[in-house]
Amino acid sequence: MDLTRPWRDYPSAAEMSAATPATRDRVVDLVRAASLVVVVFGHSFMALVVFGEDGTRLGNTLAETPSLQPATWVLQVMPLFFAAGAWANALSYRKVVSYPSWLNARVRRLVRPVLVYAGFWILASPLLLAWDETVAVPLLQISTQLLWFLGVYLLVTALTPVLVRLSAQPLRATLGWLVASAAIDLVRLAGAPGALGLANFVLVWALAGQCGLWAFSPTRCPSRPRAGLIAGAAMTLNAALVALGPWPLSLVGLPGEEISNMAPPSAVLALHSISLAAFVVLLYPWLQRLAAKERIWRPTCVVNGAAMTLYLWHLAGMILAIASLSVLGLDLVGFSTSGWVLPRLTFWALFSGYTVGLVWLMRPFEHIPLPWWDSAPRRHPLNGWPYRLQATVSVIGVVAVAVGLLALAVTGLVGFPFGVSSQYAGFRFTPGLALFVSFVGVLLIRIPVGVPRPGRSVSDAGAER
């Protein structure tokens, strides 16, 4: 078996660019790649670490320097990633005849890189703990923190049929999601149980996905003047909510906030998602010209070809960079602290190097078929059952995978499989239990694979874009 083949045969940027169909809307890929790069930079911008005799303290530059918080209105572009992903999901969903098969294919592709990532940290954790426990423990606890995104993204992916159906009245549907998310905010502020706010993880990010179905649609997008009005109205209302409170200025979660705009997301983030989508409509002609340039399109292809790899492994690159700073005796202090330049520039250089190296090494795993994981089930135990029931089993499976990944984002992988248990959504999870719940979800998703919608051929069931 030639273990070098996946890396040797991985297409170059020029090859990926040349393989782009002439009919492809490059703006969607450009927006998705650009938003991911901004997210990666934003995480490195917010990082703050101080090493001391009593342990390692992790912080956030935005909490230390509140004057930097307006920058989150530029750096918070995750809604665009959901919007572009929802549009791609909608295009692929319209081509298939089996929702369970389609959903199984999407989940397999998205979760596949997580298997390698989790396996790496399970093996690496004992080594880092043996090296320096005071440094390693807080860093390992954040090693899975970004999995919240994948859990929520899977839930929004499962809602694709709903988003597609609602796209017949796109702005009305967006307004519906907005009203629902605002209602959740109000009942939270009125003293309702905090767990109720978890509903906004679905409502707000579904709204971001719904925005993608009109922002990227050639037939349903608003005119540019109307998009300008939408953006202006959303930004004006957002400014009023932040000015009057209690919604904070920062669009990322910070300690001590009465209500977070991010975890769970708030109506402010929902409005921000609308304004970002409207700006995409306003800038579409310029974005089309930009994406047509080869020097822009090639890196866009590279980023999109390894999107999940970059999203996951840039955090590993950050952890390795911080560990290197501890060896060098440098604290990663905030921008308002004197002497921040050398540590910050050193950190960014190390972070960039580690991230590029890790992504180059791990990118084939995003596409290499894995035994069992990527094989079709030989038996379909639910054959003969009503189609809606089988689709329901698939959705339950996605919810289980999402809950497991969200719990793993909270627990980390220190001391896998038992580790330190963490409270999540009223349940107490350990890393092992979180992964087990996700695995059970995958099994449920696989059960009804291959079952077509009534009255449709199964010839292309499971196709994906």
CA radius of gyration: 22 Å
Which class do the helix and strand fractions yield? mainly alpha
- Strand numbers in spatial order across the main sheet: 1-2
Largest beta-sheet details: 2 strands, antiparallel
H-E order? HHHEEHHHHHHHHHHHHHHHEEH
Query: What's the total number of strands?
Result: 4
Count of helical stretches: 19
Q: Estimate percent helicity.
A: 55-70%
Arithmetic mean of pLDDT: 87
Low-confidence stretches: 455-465
* End-to-end CA span: 30 Å
Strand content: under 5%
Name the shape in a single word.
globular
Explain what you see:
With 465 residues, the protein is mainly α. It contains 19 helices and four strands. The strands form two sheets. It has a two-stranded antiparallel ribbon with strand order 1-2. Strands 3-4 form a two-stranded antiparallel ribbon. Helix 9 crosses helix 12. The longest helix has 33 residues. It is globular, with a radius of gyration of 22 Å. The relative contact order is 0.16.
Give a nutshell description of this structure.
The chain has 465 residues and is mostly helical.
